[in-house]
Structure formats: C-alpha cells, structure tokens
Amino acid sequence: DIVLTQSPATLSLSPGERATLSCRASQSISSYLAWYQQKPGQAPRLLIYDASNRATGIPATFSGSGSGTDFTLTISSLEPEDFAVYYCQQRSGWPHTFGQGTKLEIK
Amino acid sequence: QVQVVQSGSELRKPGASVKVSCKASGYTFRQYAINWVRQAPGQGLECMGWINTNTGTPTYAQGFTGRFVLSVDSSVNTAYLQITSLKAEDTAVYFCARSYGGGWNDYWGQGTLVTVSS
Questions:
Q1: Under a CB-based contact definition with an 8 Å cutoff, are residues A102 and A84 in contact?
Q2: Which of B2, B47, B59 to mutate to test the interface with A (most CBs of A within 10 A)?
Q3: Rounded to whole angstroms, how far apart are CA atoms B48 and B38?
Q4: Is 90 exceeded by the pLDDT of residue B86?
C-alpha cells in the first residue's frame, strides 16, 4: 500500500496567520492527491483534489500544490472555522489510502 | 442538490451482524460509485472499498474482505454495507461518500456509528 505521511502532527497558529501542511507519499503518485477537512462530530469535507483543484464552494484561501511524492496544503489566512483536522488521500494505487492527519489548533 | 443520508447508529453484540444504508439523491445515482470509509474512535480515516453502482461490482481493501459486504439497490438509490460476525474492534463510524473523479469523496453521508459491545 502507498503510505502517506503528514506533518506536522499538530500545528498551533493564530487566526490571520498562514498555515502550511505537508503530505509525503511513499512512492510517486503523480498529482493524484486530495485534501479533506474534518471537524469534531462531522464528516470530512473535500477541499482540494488532483493536488491543486479546489472543490465546489471551497474559498480561495485554500490552495494545494505538489506532485510526485511531496504535497502541500496552504491556508493563506486562518479563520476561526479553519481549525480542524486535515487529511490527505491518494488515488494512485489501490487502496486509496489516507494520511494520519494534521490537527490545526488555535494558539 | 446532492445529498447522502445514512442510517442511524447501531448497537450490536459480538458475533451479530449489521447493515448500514446510504441513500443518495440530487444526481443520477448510477453515474457515480460509492466509497466506504471507516473511522475508529479517535483515529484517522481508512479506505474500506467501493461499489460500482451501475454494475453492482464491489472492490474491497485488504482487511475488509470476508466479513464486509458492499451491495447496492439502484432502484432506490441506496448502497449498503453489511458486517457479519461483529467484533469489538469493528466499533467505529462508517461513512459512505459519492466517488468523484476516479476516487475522490466529494459528498459524504453523516456517518453511522456502529458499537459492538456485550
């Protein structure tokens, strides 16, 4: 299985700051990577797919980049509602594995 | 608008079975597969498998073969996850989601908590 490693495990920032989350794949996955946001008690929400495409209704403060094995999710200016857990997922190989998550918490 | 609605929480004893439903609306059901994802308490997301809603063909991730069965009834726009011979470690929230663009989960159900306890 393709292993996705997210870093950091926890990121402590303040509203208005810029957040940079990383996801590294154990082998090349081209651009077959997505990012999800999950808040407590809720289903995940698709933010970014195919590495850099924003999903429907996702604000432009969220952006994704990368290809091959290294990917980044950037939130340009944090809003209070952005504090959540973020997961990456690949669909290059079956099963479509997820990373272990990065918790973005308020500093 | 697209909606995916799952059945409610379930409590089962070890060895029993459970069937979770996932009803989709707001789009042509047969044009998109349905993915299933498990989330154990306090843990991350785990890909379980997916089902082709047009042919009814399921595909399972390793670790979800044997006791886990995916099925679909396209006449009522509903996919199902059945788990047999339940174990305590099956306790989790099970999500279904519409599969977009080859495997992305773009519309999710609210999740179904399955608790296995004697």
A1: no
A2: B47
A3: 7
A4: yes
